[in-house]
Amino acid sequence: MNITHLGLLAGALTSAAAIPQVVRTYRTRQARDISIWQPVLLNIGMVLWLIYGLVIGDTPLIVANIFSIVCYSFLIAMKILYKDDDKSTSCV
C-alpha cells in the first residue's frame, strides 16, 4: 500500500461518516436535531481543504473533500427544506 492508497482509504472512511446522517435525515424528513452551523462550517472548511488539495495536486484530498462537500450540502439543503415539517411535529 503506497501513501496515495492510504490517503484514499482515510478520505473514504472520514467522508463515509456523513452518509448515515444524510440517509437518516432523508428518510425521516426531520432535521430539527441538527444545528445548521455544523454542516455549514464543515462545508466551508472542506472547500478550503479542496482548494488546498487542488493547489498541491493531492488526489485523495480532492476526492474526499468533493464527496464530503456534496454530502453536507445535501444535509444543509434538507435542514432548510424540512424546517416547516419540524415545526409541525414539535411538542410545545
Automatic annotation (TrEMBL):
<dbReference type="GO" id="GO:0051119">
    <property type="term" value="F:sugar transmembrane transporter activity"/>
</dbReference>
<feature type="transmembrane region" description="Helical">
    <location>
        <begin position="34"/>
        <end position="55"/>
    </location>
</feature>
<keyword id="KW-0812">Transmembrane</keyword>
<protein>
    <recommendedName>
        <fullName>MtN3 and saliva related transmembrane protein</fullName>
    </recommendedName>
</protein>
<dbReference type="Pfam" id="PF03083">
    <property type="entry name" value="MtN3_slv"/>
</dbReference>
<feature type="transmembrane region" description="Helical">
    <location>
        <begin position="62"/>
        <end position="82"/>
    </location>
</feature>
<dbReference type="InterPro" id="IPR047662">
    <property type="entry name" value="SemiSWEET"/>
</dbReference>
<keyword id="KW-0472">Membrane</keyword>
<dbReference type="GO" id="GO:0016020">
    <property type="term" value="C:membrane"/>
</dbReference>
<keyword id="KW-1133">Transmembrane helix</keyword>
<dbReference type="InterPro" id="IPR004316">
    <property type="entry name" value="SWEET_rpt"/>
</dbReference>
